[in-house]
Design brief:
Low-confidence stretches: 5-17
CATH class: Mainly Beta
Number of strands: 12
Mean pLDDT: 88
Distance between the termini: 69 Å
Helix content: 10-25%
CATH topology: outer membrane lipoprotein receptor (LolB), chain A
Shape: globular
Radius of gyration: 20 Å
């Protein structure tokens, strides 16, 4: 009887998960950030922290740096300044002023692999995806304005914990597959995955084309250590992992930050969100 009861409970939970609508997960996520009043009161949001950038395949290639994320409505700014003078690590500067997005050209002269990806896939900026709930531009908070589409893609374990997975696609579609992960217990947004596949190159002769491999891109954003700031529950750790595999081998780069300073309703100049 006990075994039978367990089967019923598990089956019921599975059915309920299957019936969960993406809009329900989205609503619960907003509740996990703060009350409607608290969210509406935060007109602007700034998060500042320090961390490192490194090539995961080579622990010696590492640089310390500072990150700033600022937002106002759907406007967004993300800047990473690195101490390294090596050209292996470039600064990052991403802006969206509500109409136009930009990926700045860093002082090192060349964009990073991540910067090139965002430059080619600006929906990550324009749809409020990059930075997750660390900004007021967060896609879930502006889903109606963005006119994007959410789909419920079941559950998946992330670091041993169950998470609901929502697929996201912008109006008109795009080349990037986006998956949003929400902790099953708290509905906090803990992860975003971006995947894109680039077609294999074409050789001068038909037989040469077989020598070219498809290039697979994958970017992961991870969020953790959620705590209260200005009436909102926000992540205090932020990690980005860029990976690509293809004709030129495999590359993996990690940016990992601890956010220590938060501020809401600070006056932000319009130029903050403009391309430099």
């Amino acid at each position: 009887m006990l075994f039978g009861l367990l089967v019923v409970v598990v089956a019921t939970a599975f059915v309920n998960a299957q019936k969960l609508k993406p809009e329900e997960v989205a609503a619960k996520n907003l509740e996990s950030i703060g009350t409607p009043e608290a969210r509406a009161a935060a007109k602007t949001l700034i998060a500042v922290g320090t961390g490192t950038a490194k090539f995961l395949s080579n622990a010696d290639l590492q640089s310390n740096g500072r990150i700033v994320i600022a937002s106002e409505g759907t406007k967004f700014f993300l800047g990473i300044n690195l101490e390294s003078t090596s050209n292996r690590f470039a600064d990052e500067l991403y802006t969206f002023d509500g109409s136009n997005s930009s990926v700045g050209l860093p002082r090192q002269g060349n964009r990073s692999a991540l910067g090139n990806f965002v430059q080619s896939n600006k929906m990550t900026l324009e749809q409020g995806l990059l930075g997750g709930s660390l900004s007021t531009a967060w896609v879930i908070a502006n889903i109606a304005e963005n006119k994007g589409k959410l789909s419920f893609d079941g559950t998946k374990k992330i670091d041993g914990k169950e998470a609901y997975v929502l697929g996201y696609s912008k109006k008109g579609g795009g080349d990037v597959d986006v998956s949003l992960y929400f902790d099953k217990d708290t509905f906090r947004h803990v992860r975003t995955e971006y995947k894109r596949m680039s077609s294999a190159g074409i050789g001068l002769r038909p037989e040469d084309s077989t020598k070219y491999d498809e290039t697979r891109f994958k970017i992961i954003e991870e969020f953790g250590d959620f705590r209260a700031e200005s009436g909102l529950t926000l992540p205090h750790t932020y990690r980005i992992v860029y990976s690509t595999s293809g004709q030129r081998g495999t590359t993996e780069i990690e940016w990992k930050f601890t956010l220590t300073e938060f501020a809401a309703n600070q006056k932000l100049e319009a130029s903050t969100f403009k391309a430099p």
